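Summary for the lay section of the report: proteins are chains of building blocks that fold into shapes. Here we show the chain for Benzoylsuccinyl-CoA thiolase and then a coded description of the shape we predicted for it.
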Amino acid sequence: MSGTTQAPAIDGWWATDESGSPHLVGARCPQCGTYVFPPRANNCPNPACAGDELEQVPLSRRGTLWSYTENRYAPPPPYPAPDPFEPFAVAAVALADEGLIVLGKVVEGTLAADLKVGMEMELTTMTLFVDDEGVERTVYAWRIAE
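The coded shape description reads as follows.
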């Protein structure tokens, strides 16, 4: 059986649960409860806290659209871009439970005209590019919640 191999474009920023649903991996300060994304092991981001050990935790899969924009130009090298380049939307999604705003690409086929501040968004994954070994490099992405 031949198939395409998939691997994250960046390790450790998202994972999947037993059902195959993706979630972001963040970090939480056990002293003050502050969350951070992308995850890291130390330096609590809360200036009022001296905590220096953060624990990895799964973050919410859903949030509300806080802001968005549309990228209409291909990124410069060394960043991969499809040829021909297709515009794509970028969303800033507020995770209410964690008090975080997480920026990410929006799935193909959804552009700025389809988005509205306050709408419900959910996490998914998408292929960013195929590397020189033929591995599909995937990233987390946002889509309009069903």
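Put simply, here is one thing we learned. The mean pLDDT is 92.
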